[in-house]
Description:
alpha+beta, two-stranded parallel ribbon, 2 helices, globular, RNA endonuclease activity, PIN-like_dom_sf, VapC20-like, PIN domain-containing protein
Amino acid sequence: xxxxxxxxxxxxxxxxxxxxxxxxxxxxxxxxxxxxxxxxxxxxxxx
Length: 47
């Protein structure tokens, strides 16, 4: 599932896996400097 998402969104398999785990646990926000998360449906906390 993460490999398919990675290909669809143009992110790494690791980022896709982290996103899928976040979604399953109900996490909507991520604190990151990784620009790839901008391609995914999450809120990025920058401060």
